[in-house]
Specification:
heterodimer; A: 355 residues; alpha+beta; 60s Ribosomal Protein L30, Chain: A; Phosphoribosyl-aminoimidazole Synthetase, Chain A, domain 2; 2 domains; seven-stranded mixed beta sheet; five-stranded mixed beta sheet; 23% strand; globular; B: 366 residues; alpha/beta; Rossmann fold
Chain lengths: 355, 366
């Protein structure tokens, strides 16, 4: 090896970029940058109206002689249909209940559309429906309309459920992703990443076993308790697809503020951390289905936190960061070892690293 | 979490940084060769903690980044075939070939699957005897043993519908290329801990001696990396040139002999083109002739491809440590992770992507 000639290093070589995609790829559904671009570029221009443009979890509208209403819709395509801690039925009810609740509204009615694949076991569908009934009872909502379609075998993954929900706004509440203010505290209602890792584990994609349960739960009672305590809750969001990082990035952009997270404060279960370490994932990008992020005026933060901790789905609530005027539109993280980094939007699908 | 938290301990990090600051008296340029280390340095913001005398430059150790364009184009051509299930480590799916990536192939109907291990690809081949299952065997010495083992297993189990598209690269020849370049600024190396866990570090003393460059085998957690930097700085300040092991909990001088044996059984050394650098003699591995029935390049007609390159991208300079990612004119403008000009912007381990993700326009406050 000693007598080697120096290698002639060529000038830079790189491929042409892929800017324009002619097809939908899975990354468009990841809740990250590609999803956002699809909404901004393709959906928003033709449908444009103030309720949609607000970019929140539910649209808020007023019909004649009515309280303002929050209306939301969500499609559920989880695989497998049953996973530790939940199933597609519970997910379909809780997902929409939570989206309505995050506007500061009281969810009251849901509709459900079922896309069934030819060959699906009726008994399995019964189990899913029973789970929906239980979740709806827990949330205190009625399922008042539905639709059923059957597609040929192979055209759907067993069962898809789309739900829509409506709730009336609590008088005087004004909650939106655009209302975060410098000085506000960022609260998360409990541990991060449980749902995503539970589902990956149930798929057998982890290659090892975990006892992590999905956190899927209706959060409307938690929200009610919080709103009873404080008039200074500025933002509520459930960090589902794309996780805490994507949700906070949306808020930072909507409100034109910076959000600084405090790494040691992040509540992450050891099993979730371990799974993420092994797979090269970041828990901040893993989906949650029973957690909320609240951005609250500093003077009310402790009172809100105290109330949250008395509820079933908020007992591990904790302050994880703060809103600032600097670094507008960005989420930053103060690391445990004293450095700072950006917490960016996910670019596409979260991919395991090679080594 | 055991074996993680100890190596991220804030107090020990502070102590190690203080010791680096204490001993450093003059500027030193240190290269971490491994993309996993580049990612960790940016993720934990370790460079922010170092004194201004220490400059970290990022080496060509991201396996995704250096996989040559023509190999990716071959992968795309094979993956698009209706009779093929194409399997790959996840990172590779986003790397653009000439005009598209494996994601696009999948969206257009190709059967492209992410696997965590090449042995999973062999299983898929067993389960789908009417399909050709191809695994994209890329990477450094770290992935080579498992990739080689997949071929050994497929042969032993008589799985004939399995093949591998090989694009393996080796670290020591890249060190030669970088240190032998007249433009080299590298004064010390952090050798890649995972590579050395497989190969040991017996290959490195002659390189260190030839180029009078100290090397320290270094791990991946914040304390590991700072320890590697500290040991390198000790050598540089004392004028020593040695190869030291800063990652003894995973690395021995001889490395993992059974892993080396399976590599040598299946692969032989070849010249290999590195994306962004060019051809480096004797820098890669290909299948030995006796395993040619598992060679996807022979099984499928993926002839010569002449890829088009972006004139804007300076990934080659980045990969050699001659340019910092944010020093590139295209950084964050024409080139961003959702529309990368170069592979260094694609993989999480790529230096440009790490800068973009963790450091873009970030004002560092003390």
């Amino acid at each position: 090896m000693k007598d080697r000639e120096p290698v002639y290093i060529q000038s830079a070589m790189c491929p042409v970029p892929i800017r324009d995609r002619g097809h939908i790829i899975l990354g468009h559904g990841s809740g990250g940058k590609l999803s956002g671009d699809l909404i901004t570029d393709l959906f928003l221009p033709p449908f444009d109206n103030p309720a949609l443009r607000a970019g929140d979890d539910a649209g808020v509208v007023s019909a004649a002689n009515c309280n303002p209403l929050a209306i939301s819709t969500d499609s559920h395509v989880v695989r497998p249909l049953f996973f530790p801690g939940g199933d597609i039925g519970r997910l379909a009810v809780c997902g929409t209940v939570n989206d309505v609740a995050m506007m500061g509204a009281v969810p009251a009615f849901l509709t459900a559309g079922f896309i069934l694949e030819e060959g699906l076991e009726i008994g399995l569908l019964e189990k899913v429906v029973a789970s929906m009934k239980e979740a709806a009872a827990e949330a205190g909502v009625l399922i008042i309309a539905g639709d059923t379609k059957v597609v040929e075998r192979g055209k759907a993954d067993g069962l898809y459920i789309a739900t829509s929900g409506v709730g009336s706004m609590l008088p005087g509440t004004h909650i939106s992703g655009s209302l975060a203010q410098p000085g506000d505290k960022v609260i998360v209602s409990g541990s991060i990443g449980d749902h995503g890792i539970a589902v990956l584990g149930a798929r057998g994609d982890l290659g090892f076993e975990t006892d992590i349960q999905s956190d899927v739960a209706p959060l409307n009672h938690l929200v009610s308790a919080m709103l009873d305590t404080s008039d200074n809750i500025h933002v509520l969001r459930d960090p589902t697809r794309g996780g805490v990082a994507s949700t906070l990035n949306e808020i930072a952009r909507q409100s034109q503020v910076g959000i600084v997270l405090n790494e040691p404060a992040l509540p992450i279960k050891t099993a979730v951390r371990a799974a993420c370490e092994m797979l090269g994932f970041d828990p901040l990008y893993i989906a949650n289905e029973g957690k909320l992020l609240a951005i609250v005026a500093p003077e009310d933060a402790d009172a809100v936190l105290a109330v949250m901790r008395q509820t079933r789905y908020g007992e591990d609530a904790v302050i994880i960061g703060e809103v600032q005027a600097e670094a507008k539109g960005r989420v930053l993280m103060k690391t445990a070892i004293g450095s700072t980094r950006i917490v960016d939007l996910l670019m596409g699908e979260m991919l395991p690293r090679i080594c | 979490m055991k074996y993680i938290d100890e190596f991220r301990d804030a107090e020990l990090v502070k102590k190690t940084v203080a010791e680096i600051r204490r001993v450093v008296t003059r500027p030193h340029t240190i290269m971490e060769i491994c993309g996993g280390q580049t990612h960790a340095i940016m993720h934990f913001g370790l460079d922010q903690l170092l004194p201004p005398e220490i400059e970290l430059v990022h080496g060509p150790g991201c396996p995704v980044c250096v996989t040559p364009l023509e190999q990716i184009d071959k992968a795309l051509a094979i993956a698009a075939r209706p009779d093929v299930i194409f399997t790959s480590y996840g990172d590779m799916l986003r790397v653009p070939g000439s005009g598209r990536d494996l994601f696009s192939v999948r969206a257009a109907g190709g059967d492209v699957r992410v696997v965590y291990s090449p042995l999973d690809a062999v299983k898929i081949a067993q389960q789908n005897p009417d399909k050709q299952v191809v695994f994209f065997a890329i990477g450094f010495e770290t992935t080579a043993p498992a990739n080689a083992m997949s071929v050994v297993q497929a042969q032993a189990m008589g799985v004939t519908n399995f093949s591998v598209l090989v694009s393996h690269v080796c670290v020591p020849p890249a060190m030669h290329a970088i240190l032998g370049s007249p433009d080299s600024r590298v004064q010390g190396f952090l050798a890649a801990g995972h590579v050395c866990a497989v190969m040991g570090y017996w290959e490195y003393p002659p390189i260190a001696a030839q180029y009078q460059t100290p090397m320290v085998v270094t791990g991946f957690e914040p304390l590991d990396i700072l320890q590697g930097i500290l040991m390198t700085v000790y050598q540089l300040e004392e004028g020593r040139v040695e190869v030291e092991n800063g990652y003894p909990r995973a690395v021995t001088f001889d490395g993992n002999k059974p892993a080396q044996a399976v590599i040598n059984r299946v692969f032989e050394v070849c010249d290999r083109k590195w994306r962004g650098i060019g051809v480096i003699p004797a820098s890669g591995w290909r299948l030995r002739p006796e395993f040619s029935q598992f060679n996807a390049e022979e099984r499928f007609d993926v002839g010569d491809i002449q890829p088009e390159e972006s004139p804007l991208c300076q990934a080659g300079l980045v990969l050699q440590g001659l340019l910092k990612p944010d020093g590139c004119l295209a950084f964050g403008k024409e080139c961003a992770p959702e529309h990368p000009l170069g592979a260094t912007m694609v993989s999480a381990e790529g230096a440009c992507a790490a800068y973009y993700r963790y450091r873009r326009g970030l004002e560092i406050k003390d």
